[in-house]
Design brief:
- The chain has 21 helices and no strands.
- By secondary structure, it is mostly helical.
- The longest helix is centred in the middle third of the chain and has 146 residues.
Length: 516
């Protein structure tokens, strides 16, 4: 019942009041801002270190590391001192707490090196002890003992009671992990003699360790007595972690004695203290973060006001300048737009004139081509008629001469026969037809080729001639005269020619030829 009331009281205090860390953080950040304004580098470094410590104690390791690193960064251009050593040790402990032991070692070794240079005994002791703790957590107990003993050797015979007690306690813990309980008890006892009667966390912790050793050695009665003493001191210092540790050890001791009811009750109290501890830590982190947030908001507001003042002082000038630039830009744009319109209008006029000239030139060329085509068609038609008339004349002349030869005229018979033979020979020659064909191809190129490709059967030379003459739209009588056949023969040849072409019965032959 007494412990339940104590738990309720502690929980009420935690939830209803700001933590000391949060209050200190606010004050330290205000002092840091003043130190920055006064350009006081030593004070700035000290305040950053203390702020980092608050974050580390609150479990906000990322924030703590940020401030510790800012301190170490400034020391790159400054001479090293005890604060540099402390900061490196804090970073090393921070990495140890997050189980990043490899990252911790370089910082601790740096602290050891600088402590030796400065002959800074306290820093050297703390660095050796931190390095020993790192190796202990990694399970390398021999290395841990080596550095804890170095820490002990660095201490002077007088003074440093708390530090010496802590080193003794660390060495005792290492021997306890090695299950060498007599050696562990020896060092825990040395530590206790230094902190006995101080009613401090150190006294409660070392008493708890001594009770733990008695319990592990099987002396449960003495173990319970000493652990109860540790619980009383822990209650005085009001430390939840120590209370949890003491009640948990009492639960283990009573369980070994077979008193399971007491073991259960102490175990339950240990869980309650653990919960209280976690709540307190969480609340502490929340308070620190809220304080940090308020400080950041305040700093942001101050910076914002300063920036707004700067902006307000230049806003009017910028507005006037921008307005002036705007009007000048509009004026220049109107000038440019007007000039551009005139240029575009001129270009359009020139383009229209050029297009008009090209159209006129094409019209003239087309007119000339049409005129030339008409001339050539007319010439071709005349040439065709000329052939018709010539062949007709030659035919009539040949007939008359043949008739004269039938008159039994002795003197002219031989000459007339020769003349008839010569005329007939001339009529059989194709030289004029070849000339005609060349002339035709100039006016109607590829007609003969297109006609041959369009035919569904192979066309004879005579049929090709017939197609050419039909293309000229000559009558059957005119064609008969040119080919020196009868009109009936032309009609028959035309019928056969039509069958070799892809024509329907109703499709016009001449129209088909004109389309080729």
């Amino acid at each position: 019942m007494r412990y339940n009331f104590l738990l309720f009281s502690l929980l009420l205090i935690i939830c209803c009041s700001p933590t000391v860390n949060a209050q200190n953080l606010k004050q330290l950040k205000e002092e840091l801002e003043q130190a920055i304004q006064h350009n006081s580098t030593p004070v700035v470094l000290e305040k950053r270190f203390l702020i980092g410590k608050i974050y580390a104690e609150s479990g906000l390791y990322a924030n703590a590391l940020e401030y510790f690193n800012s301190v170490l960064k400034d020391y790159q251009n400054n001479s090293k001192d005890s604060l540099f050593v402390k900061t490196n040790i804090e970073v090393g402990e921070l990495y140890n707490n997050t189980k990043r032991y490899a990252n911790a070692i370089p910082f601790i070794e740096q602290a050891i090196s600088v402590s030796k240079q400065l002959d800074y005994k306290q820093g050297l002791v703390k660095a050796y002890s931190t390095l020993g703790s790192s190796y202990e957590k990694q399970g390398n107990y021999m290395k841990a003992l080596e550095f804890e003993n170095k820490s002990l050797s660095a201490l002077s015979e007088k003074g440093h009671r708390e530090i010496r007690a802590k080193v003794y306690e660390n060495i005792g813990s290492i021997y306890e992990d090695l299950m060498q309980y007599d050696e562990a008890f020896e060092y825990f006892e040395k530590s206790y003699q230094l902190v006995k009667g101080t009613s401090s966390k150190a006294e409660a912790n070392v008493l708890n360790n001594i009770g733990d050793v008695y319990r592990k050695k099987g002396n449960l009665t003495i173990a319970i007595t000493i652990t109860r003493q540790a619980l009383e001191v822990a209650t005085k210092v009001n430390d939840n972690h120590l209370l949890e540790s003491a009640t948990k050890d009492l639960a283990k001791a009573y369980a070994l004695q077979g008193d399971y009811e007491k073991a259960y009750n102490y175990r339950l109290e240990a869980e309650n203290f653990k919960e209280l501890s976690l709540k307190a830590e969480n609340q502490n982190q929340v308070n620190v973060l809220l304080t940090d947030l308020k400080i950041n908001q305040k700093e942001s507001q101050i910076k914002l006001l300063k920036e707004q003042n700067k902006l307000n002082s230049t806003r009017l000038i910028l507005s006037v300048v921008i307005l002036g630039i705007f009007f000048i830009s509009v004026f220049l744009w109107f000038l440019y737009a007007g000039k551009r319109r005139r240029i575009n209008t001129k270009l359009q006029e020139l383009e229209q004139e050029k297009l008009k000239a090209e159209l006129e030139l094409k019209a003239k060329e087309k007119k000339n081509l049409h005129r030339n085509l008409e001339v050539k068609n007319t010439a071709l038609s005349r040439y065709s008629l000329h052939l018709v008339q010539k062949n007709k004349l030659l035919t009539e002349l040949s007939a008359k001469l043949k008739h004269l030869t039938q008159r039994q005229s002795v003197n002219y018979e031989k000459h007339l026969k020769d003349l008839c033979s010569e005329i007939d020979f001339t009529l059989q020659q194709d030289s004029e037809w070849n000339d005609f064909n060349v002339f035709f191809e100039e006016i109607h190129p590829n007609f003969t080729k297109n006609l041959s490709e369009a035919a569904i059967e192979t066309l004879t030379p005579t049929e090709l001639k017939l197609g050419i003459l039909l293309r000229l739209n000559l009558s059957s009588k005119e064609i008969a005269s040119i080919l020196r056949v009868t009109p009936d023969s032309v009609r028959v040849a035309r019928h056969r020619f039509r069958k070799k072409l892809p024509l329907d019965t109703k499709e016009d032959l001449v129209a088909f030829l004109l389309a080729l």
